[in-house]
Amino acid sequence: LTRLAYLHWHGRLEQSQPxxxxxxxxxxxxxxxxxxxxxxxxxxxxxxxxxxxxxxxFGTFSPVSGQVKRWWGSFPARVxxxxxxxxxxxxGLGFEPxxxxxxxxxxxLGDWVRRYANTNAETQSQYxxxxxxxxxxxxxxxALNTRVSKRSVTQLSLIPLIGGSIxxxxxxxxxxxxxxxxxxxxxxxxxxxxxxxxxIGVLYSLTSKIPYREYIVWGLVLYFGSNMWQIYSxxxxxxxxxxxxxxxxxxxxxxxxxxxxxEPGSLIGFTGGGNVGYFIQDxxxxxxxxxxxxxxxxxxxxxxxxxEFLSEMGLDYVLANPxxxxxxxxxxxxxxxxxxxxxxxxxxxxxxxxxxxxxxxxASQPADN
Length: 369
Hints:
alpha/beta
């Protein structure tokens, strides 16, 4: 089909005689192999080097965080949100926060639909209708000026960019990826902005007979630019108010709490809390969900030996919700190592972490007041 399309495009279809596929392969396999290696070699070679380096440096070919999240998605329980159940998210077209990728197209349509829909099913159906309508409208608009549209689509690489963005979303969701985040969808946002720019460019090409069109365009740019600047600056002023806090106000209360109730040099386990590690002083935060830990810890967590692993590491404390530690993916692996304290932060409790024999002895002693 590719050969026939090529011959038809160059006007040589009538002069060409179809060849047997095996003969075609025999005559061209060297050229295809050479060209394919040159085209894909940069990507495949770079990826291979990275995977080998990761294996030697971290003991695994791919990032541990991705393996952990795929593992979470395999649980029957909805661990950290679980794998997506939304068909729009599955294809990367969602309009909810974590699945929101095609900004500002998807969020604009989603906000408009939610404003008028009464039920979730109605929201889904109306959103699908809006997507189809918008796609048909864009295609019809591009057909009004095919010369500009074809050149722009090619120069902007929209077809591989859009196709790659959809495949990226499918890669995550088809594997049951859990706890996906909004910031994963960078390529979708770039593609959405380029599509909008393409539509505006085609519309501009159709206004050649309108007098003073450049002044009108600049007026629209100034209008929308000033509105966007006002929204952004107002948001920044509300979030980062001048002199709202005194200079000695701690950036994170939880870091101060831990510094007051743990010894310098302590290893403190968190089920999340990676950001605390940036601000706490003279202590080390150990991630317990595995996302920013090691492949060895991930394997221990899967095998039910995570408590033993952290004990050998010398963990001193855990700040977590005790009920969460009895659920997947932890499943009570740390219970025999933990001793309760009377220190709480929100829904979390500071727990001492000891080997099982020491933990039992500490738990049997009365708490000091």
